[in-house]
Specification:
Helix content is 53%, strand content 12%. The chain has 291 residues and is of the alpha/beta class. The radius of gyration is 22 Å and the shape is globular.
Length: 291
Amino acid sequence: MRPAMLWLLIVLFLTVPALARDLPPVLLLLNGTGSAGKSSIGRALEKSLRHATFLSEERLVFLAYAEILKRRGLRPKKPLHDLVDLMDFRAHLPALTEASLRREFRRQGCDLIGQETRRQIELAARQGYDFILLDDTLWKPEQVEQWHQRCLGYRSFHVVVYCPLSSLLEHVKRRNQSVYAYEHRDLALPLEMYFSMYPPSQGEAGIDTLAPEQLERDLRACAAYQRELKGEDLPIGQYLQRMRAVVRIAPFFHYDLMVNTGLNSTEQCVEQIEVELARRFQGSCTIKASK
């Protein structure tokens, strides 16, 4: 092939739309602590982005539980469509059967959710979605590595959904007003996730600044609410010892964008994500859904 012809083909490849090049979909991760607001942003993005599907954590948990029911030969009289249906079905099971299901989910739940995540991503890609949205919490190094492996073959975009401690407390309180029991939370795991994802840093880069006095007030408010819930005691002394001076809060991993649900509404966070998506993937895909 002549050099001039080869150069022309390269230019055409770089300028034609994504669909003509058959580019892979964008795998968009909404990553943050439990109750930070990831699901609300994911549901809004699913409606706002062009040809997007949202694989929510709730949906993946439901699919993992459905796989356990299938393996156990437990067949509901009517099809189960979501966690509400699943909770209703489980409520009518014998106590020993339900306890056995919970134990099996604790043993195999993470692996099954991982398998379902891969399966649903592949299915969505085959169906031609431009954006595949995920809701997850990467608070351990091995989970970050799993995310990188999952992105192979896709275009990835990693959004940290940050929520200050005071806002996190309010989010948990609102969740606990839901009529659905599976929505309810205490604060033990969200706080463990928070201090694991955002280790103290003295550097310039960061997404929030914590002063020990404010941190202590926020943690004591969390501990008081945790006692109301009759949940496990929060190790606030350990958290305070790690932050004896003003520190900047920053994730221990690389990310593409951070949105703050303590400062911005769900709609504002969605707009920030769309603006950055348009900048990152300009010319390779249509961002906004047609009205």
